[in-house]
Amino acid sequence: MKIVALAGSIVGSKTKTAMLKTAEMLKQKYPEHEVTLLDLAEYTVEFSDGRNYFEYEGDTKYITETIMTADAIIIGTPTFQASIPATLKNIFDLLPVNAFRDKVVSSIVTAGSAKHYLMVEQQLKPILAYMKAHIVPIYVFIEEKDFLRKEIVNDDILFRLERLVEDTVLTVEAFEAIRMRKDEEYDF
C-alpha cells in the first residue's frame, strides 16, 4: 500500500510537526507499507494553469504523480483565514476532478484556536468529496496549545493521531476487499 502524508503549507511549523509525527507512526506500525512525506515547503510547485498533471515538470510533476499513485493520502493543513491555504488548494487544482477516486483520504488540521474546527467540514471535506475521495470521517484537530518547541505535548492528540493512522489503513483495506469481492462477480 502506498500512503502519502501531505503537509499542505509552505509556512509555519505546526502542520509539518504533526505530519512528521504521523509519518513516523505509519512507518512504525505499518513497516510493510510505502510511506512518503510530501512537505510542500520543500518543493517548488507551479500554479495550476489547466494542463493535465502529467504535463508538468520537476517538483510539480513529482508531487502530483506521487499523489495520483497513492492508495491513501493523509492531508495536513493549517487553517488560514478560516480556510485551507492557497498552496494546498493549488495542489487540488493541479489534479484531475476524479483524482481521489478509489483513494482513502484523511485529515489533520492545525489552528490557532478551537474556533476554526469547522473549516474541515465546510472547506476541506466538500473538495475531497467532489474529487471522489473515500473520506475517513474523523479528523485530528490540533490547536496551538498542543505544541511546545515543535513537539506535540498533548497525549490525547498523540492517541488520536495513532487512531487516525489506523483508521486510514483499515479503511483502505476494507475498500480493497469490497472491490475484490465486486470484481469476482464478473466472469472475465
UniProtKB/TrEMBL annotation:
The keyword Ligase does not apply. Keywords: Flavoprotein, FMN, Oxidoreductase. GO terms for molecular function: FMN reductase (NADPH) activity. Gene3D superfamilies: 3.40.50.360. InterPro entries: Flavoprotein-like_sf, FMN_Rdtase-like_dom, NAD(P)H-dep_FMN_reductase. Residues 1-143 form the NADPH-dependent FMN reductase-like domain. The gene is ssuE_2. Its EC number is 1.5.1.38. This is NADPH-dependent FMN reductase. It comes from Lederbergia lenta.
